[in-house]
Amino acid sequence: MLLASALVIAASWALTPPYEPRGSAAADEQAAKGETPAPGAEAALLRVIGELQEGHPVYARMNKNLADAIRAQPGEQRRLANMGPVKSVGYLGGGRAGLLPGTGIRFDRFRVTFQGQTLLWIIALGEHGVIDRLGFNKVGLPTPQDVMDGYASFPAGTRALRWAEQFAILLLLVPLLGRFVLRLRL
Fold first, then answer.
1. Three-state secondary structure call for residue 34
2. Is the pLDDT of residue 38 over 70?
3. Which of 24, 37, 97, 184 to pair with 106, CA 20 to 30 A apart?
4. How far is it, in rounded angstroms, from Cα 63 to Cα 126?
5. Domain of 39: which CATH number?
6. Range of 129's domain?
């Protein structure tokens, strides 16, 4: 049984193509050549990036939930400020975030290159140009330092609550997995 599991894992690993973030972004950019972003999306993105880097975002241009989320993560603003100025912006296409095709909020994806690194951004504009959704990710897989920086960007109370939740989940999983393993008489 253990040998069969090892063979399945080895075959899956061998047949899975390697993750290439630069190739993926380039392919997305090429696929989006015929598309255009929502009117004002790129300008709104560059404006909000500048505001976040300066540490003075204009919350009136965001919906309430987004403004509250940004207020709760001052560490992210510091991280953006440390990346330096924007060097280039590439449109990666858009779509809709809804349960059914053609429904939901329209969003646009951009690749923004700063002096220090490149981030993939998503932005969705609502009525009157108000930003409904905004987010970014690094290109590639996160490093352990990225995970630690992500936790550090939250206030201490929120960080402690997240650690407690994850510890509680771990405490629930260990006995379940242990019981499962003990039932398998190898």
1. coil
2. yes
3. 24
4. 9
5. 3.10.450
6. 20-140
12, pLDDT greater than 90:
no
At 90, list the tokens: 């590439």
Residue 113 lies in a domain: yes
Query: CB of 118 within 8 A of CB of 137?
Result: no
Which residues, in sequence order, are CB contacts of 31 under 8 Å at separation 6+?
A: 93
pLDDT per position as a tens digit, 18-31: 545 555 556 666 66
Distance linking the first and last C-alpha atoms of the chain: 9
Q: DSSP character for 123? A: E
pLDDT surpassing 90 at residue 47: yes
Kindly give, in sequence order, each residue whose CB lies less than 8 Å from that of residue 80, ignoring residues fewer than 6 positions away.
49, 52, 53
As for how many domains the chain has, the answer is 1
Whether the Cβ atoms of residue 145 and residue 158 lie closer than 8 Å to each other: no
Backbone phi, psi, residue 152, to 5°: -70, -20
- Burial environment of residue 120 by CB neighbours within 10 A (0 to 12, 13 to 18, 19 or more): buried
User: Are β-strands 131-138 and 86-97 bridged in parallel, bridged antiparallel, or unpaired?
Assistant: unpaired
Q: Are 143 and 73 in contact (CB under 8 A)?
A: no
The pTM of this model reads: 0.64
CA distance 45 to 57: 12
